[in-house]
Design brief:
The chain is rod-shaped, with a radius of gyration of 42 Å. It has a 28-stranded parallel sheet that branches. With about 675 residues, the chain is mainly beta. The protein is built from 1 helix and 69 strands.
């Protein structure tokens, strides 16, 4: 260090006190290390208002035994100074502390700050482990670190103009009467360490320049180690807050961002928690970098947009912690918004957004979107999406897995790719439009409800299958549904548009009346009352489930017999013969099951018209093998119905069948012996 730099430091010390003393330079020549020993100072011990200069490497453990609170005009460690440790009685500090040496200096004695005092760590670090008190403040300068390790009580403002101010005690920054200001553009840098709780109000000004000349590139606050909590108010201006790996930083006193981005950089093993008072960043962004976790459980937050970059996760631990007028922007497919079981409302998902929106437990994200945007990311877990607002939200991802509800009340929700809305089994459109642009958007087991002026648009060539379908709260009949242009069985131009169709598997639940055939009449006609138990013919209006039966081997279709379902369970062969009538079977389907271990075949030689989708069940009973043979033609009129083959037995189809619905084989064997046995080519066999 040049003589000029030392002179400047000494002038700073002398100018700080109106009553100027002498400059005393430590030589360490005494028999002990006490300040009162003249030989340690070249012959004259210091007195009040002197400036103390420590040089050389002799007697580095320097001890103050002067009177308590002796005024000292300043403390300077020269360029050739070793690593001193100052201890002993407290002093009244009336000037700056400067370290012109590359060696780290430790000040373990107490100091009363009589004014705002400069601690200049220009060439080497300074650690103050003694307490700082008094009405004054502290200004940190110099590129090296200043560490405050004690429980301090000084009342003035702490200003960090350059280099690191490391805080290792919760009260190191003094009382809360004066705040701490970090001026990052000039290199100021505040660091927290040791698992401390800091009540001090902070003002974090801008960002530090990096070594490449970028003026705003680095942080003004670093969580260096441990779990540290800031209970005082934190005010920011275009600042960056960083965390070291394996640390946690908690804000409970509120965060106010005056302008620009509020940037958090959080490594994968670290987290930030926003609790207590809210974040206020009006018209500005909350910007998350790196791969860690930010948890928000504060109400009444204000920001315009949250941007999640890299593999960062933003997790909500309180309902409506996201501002209702803000947007969400997930930059990468690994960027995550985790609702964590808490409902949230936002003004939109930012256009061309990637990333994952999830919740392991049920939670709803309401998107009250006025503009149009594309979300390429996933909806996962149990998150529900509630689309509101007049804008259009396009979902375009084939790997969404959410089981939550999908609701559209306004605007348009577009499902652009298969699985864009995940595995949701409860789809509601009470307003606006659900636009299905690819097949297999909705799980086959789903319930679709349309009410009010809600509409579903289905793209060309798409057959979208659902389990149940409701309009204005009323369950609708199975079959195909769509607009006039779709050619569906059931036309509803109020609630459908486009050329595709909705295929509904199930009609409303129906409680059928059972009637058992006993075959005791003089003929085999279905219409003969004596052929039925109780000698009363059942209704043939679709409300009867007919059981064949306790007697007789043949039933002849002599009337228009519309049955809800048919069960063959007679201990012997049974045949349905064609007659002058017609046979229709509804949602109860056909069941054939031998009641004993004897193998047998039940036969329908009459034509069968399907009036609903249903299960056709052919069972076995231990060694008894059951078969059901249908030789008549199976049709569905102008509707589109099919059936599902269940049970381990064999179903044989040999008629020229014309039904248009899907044939599904879940179990056992389906044996066909006619080229059209599987119905028309309009739908396939699964």
């Amino acid at each position: 260090m040049t003589t000029g730099r030392l002179g400047i430091a000494l002038c700073m010390c002398l100018a700080a006190w109106s009553v100027q003393g002498e400059t005393r330079t430590w030589t360490g020549g005494g028999a002990d290390a006490n300040w009162s020993t003249p030989a340690n100072w070249g012959g004259t011990a210091p007195t009040a208002n002197d400036t103390l200069v420590f040089s050389g490497t002799t007697q580095l453990a320097s001890h103050n035994d002067l009177a308590d609170d002796t005024p000292i005009a300043g403390v300077v460690f020269t360029a050739d100074a070793g690593a001193f440790t100052l201890s002993g009685t407290p002093i009244a500090l009336d000037g700056p502390v400067s370290n012109l040496s590359a060696s780290a200096q430790t000040i373990g004695l107490g100091m009363a700050l009589t004014g705002t005092r400069v601690f200049d760590a220009s060439n080497g670090a300074i650690t103050v482990s003694g307490t700082l008190s008094g009405a004054g403040g502290l200004t940190k300068t110099g590129a090296q670190a200043l560490t405050l390790a004690a429980s301090n009580s000084y009342d003035g403002v702490t200003t960090v103009n350059n280099g690191i101010l490391l805080v290792t005690h919760g009260n190191a920054l003094g009382s809360t009467n004066g705040n701490t200001v970090v001026n990052a553009p000039s290199g100021g840098y505040l660091q927290l360490s040791g698992g401390i709780t800091v009540p001090e109000p902070l003002y974090l000004n801008w960002q530090r320049p990096d070594d490449k000349g970028n003026a705003t590139a680095l942080d003004s606050l670093l969580n260096l180690s441990g779990t540290n909590t800031l209970t005082g108010a934190v005010t920011c201006f275009k600042t960056r807050i960083y965390l070291s790996g394996g640390t946690k930083l908690i804000f409970t006193g509120g965060l106010t961002n005056l302008d620009g981005y509020l940037i958090f950089s959080i490594p994968a093993t670290s987290s930030v928690e926003l609790s207590g008072l809210p974040v206020k960043s009006p018209n500005n962004l909350l910007h998350l970098l790196d791969n860690g976790l930010l948890v928000a459980n504060t109400p009444d937050n204000v920001w315009s947009r949250i941007e999640v970059r890299s593999s960062m996760t933003f997790r909500t631990d309180l309902k409506n912690t996201l501002p209702a007028d803000s947007q969400v922007y997930l930059h990468l497919n690994t960027s995550t918004l985790n609702l964590n079981g808490y409902d949230q409302t936002v003004a939109g998902i930012y256009n061309n957004c990637y990333g994952v929106i999830r919740s392991d437990t049920p939670a709803t994200l309401t998107v009250n979107q006025a503009g149009n945007s594309l979300h390429r990311g996933q909806l996962n877990g149990a998150v529900s999406l509630f689309k509101d607002g007049a804008g259009t939200l396009i979902l375009s991802n084939t790997t969404s897995t959410t089981t939550g509800d999908i609701t559209v009340t306004n605007g348009t929700l577009v499902a652009a790719l298969t699985k864009s809305i995940g595995n949701s089994t409860n789809i509601t459109v009470s307003g606006g439009t659900l636009d299905l642009r690819a097949p297999a958007m909705i799980p086959d087991a789903a319930r679709l409800s349309i009410s009010g002026d809600g509409t579903v648009a289905i793209g060309d060539g798409i057959v979208e299958t659902v389990s149940d379908f409701f309009v204005n709260g009323v369950q609708q009949k199975s079959g195909t549904w769509g607009s006039t242009a779709s050619g569906a069985d059931h036309i509803d131009d109020t609630h459908f548009s486009g050329n595709g169709v909705l295929f509904v598997q199930h009609s409303p639940p129906f409680s059928a009346t059972e009637a058992t055939w006993d075959g005791e009449g003089e003929d085999t006609f279905l219409s003969t009352a004596a052929n039925w138990q109780g000698d009363a013919a059942p209704l043939f209006d679709g409300s009867t489930h007919a059981l064949f039966g306790t007697g007789g081997a043949t039933a002849t279709v002599d009337i228009a017999a519309n049955l809800y379902g048919i069960t063959f369970n007679r201990a012997g062969a049974f045949t349905f013969e064609a007659g002058s009538g017609s046979l229709s079977v509804g949602g109860g389907g056909i069941s054939a099951a031998s009641p004993d271990t004897t193998s047998r075949t039940y036969t329908i030689n009459a034509d069968v018209t399907l009036t609903d989708n249903a299960a056709w069940h052919v069972a076995t009973n231990e060694t008894g093998k059951t078969s059901l043979s249908i030789t008549g033609a199976i049709g569905d009129g102008s509707d589109t119905y099919g059936f599902t083959k269940t049970g381990a037995g064999t179903l044989l189809l040999s008629g020229a069948n014309t039904y248009d619905g899907i044939t599904t084989v879940d179990n056992g064997m389906l044996h066909i012996s006619h080229g059209n046995a599987l119905g028309s080519s309009r739908n396939n066999t699964v």
